[in-house]
Amino acid sequence: MFSKRFILCVVVLFVAYYWLNYIKKGPVYESKKSLDGKTVLITGGNAGIGKATVLELAKKGARVVIASRNMKKSKAVVDDIIKTTRNKKIRSMHLDLADFDSVKTFAKEFDESEQYLDYLINNAGMLTATGKAPSGVNKLFAINHFGPFLLTNLLLPKMKTQSTSRPVRILNLSSGTYRWGFATKENMYKNVTSGWDMYEVYAATKIANIFFTAKLNDMLSDYDITTYAIHPGFIDSEIEDNFTDFFQILVNINAFLFKRSIFYGCQTTLYCALDDKVTADSGHYFSNCQREELYARATNKTEEKLLWEISAKITGLDK
To answer: What is the DSSP letter of 39?
Structure first.
């Protein structure tokens, strides 16, 4: 009886140790690099992983522009980051990624007000959005892919010009859910009415982020501009808020058992932004502060090219 209890205690302690140190925690990227004089533009920097990323970059002296739809929330975050880091080079600008007119206005205002753009972090993303964007596609695809696609392309002239004298990095937050995603027109225009629909379209947008990153890398090979698709991990952020009661219960249980804090969610972003050697793997997919090989379907050049053409048409860049 004693031996059985002892073995049980050992097993429980081992499981608890593994859970606390390998499930609830992840790799932490550390760098002494200063970002003084560097400008970062981050979408969705007023909550969750984005806010955690802004905090870490602000600590390193970066000039950070938070682009978000909710200006009241952004202002509170700006004030909090300045107070915490004593870095006063933090500001917010209005941007609604679901509205292409808003994206165009933002890009123009950013280009006119900021001299440099050293890091573009397409961090903003949603899972629980329903309804259609003004362009006719569903809001999830507009916010998670088409908006960032348009924003990046509108800012490319600035980044290309700058890259002759100072390098640029473009970071696109994706997700491991890309494995179940299909970037089809059906998903782009799908009428999202349930939690299952949301996950299906969300996964489609995440493989779209990967295709976009790889295509950008190929197109920018003559410039000192590198691109990265990033899986932040299974993180307890605000992205799954606003589900129906049943789904929210499942989400909360998952969060307690498996999800890591937002501190760990920004680590791979920091790795891709700050590491000196990572530029050799431009255009690839990263997770847990290292490059990760993709499923074969996510490297399909035909689908990658088709998605770019569809995206250019939907956002009006083909005109």
So the answer is: E
Task: Say which residues have a Cβ less than 8 Å from residue 134's Cβ, sequence separation at least 6.
Answer: 98, 99, 100, 101
The Cα 319–Cα 315 span in angstroms is 9
Least Cα distance to 185 among 79, 266, 306, 51 occurs for: 306
What global pTM score does this model have? 0.90
Enzyme catalytic residues: 202
Please state, in angstroms and rounded to a whole number, the distance separating the CA atoms of residues 297 and 165: 36
Decide: 280 and 103 in contact? Cβ < 8 Å.
no
- What 219-224 contacts at long range (C-beta under 8 Å, 24+ apart), as own/partner pairs, is 220/160, 223/159, 223/160, 223/163, 223/168, 224/163, 224/164, 224/166, 224/167, 224/168
pLDDT per residue as tens digits for the range 25-36: 678 999 999 999
Task: List Cβ neighbours of 242 (8 Å cut-off, separation of 6 or more).
Answer: 128
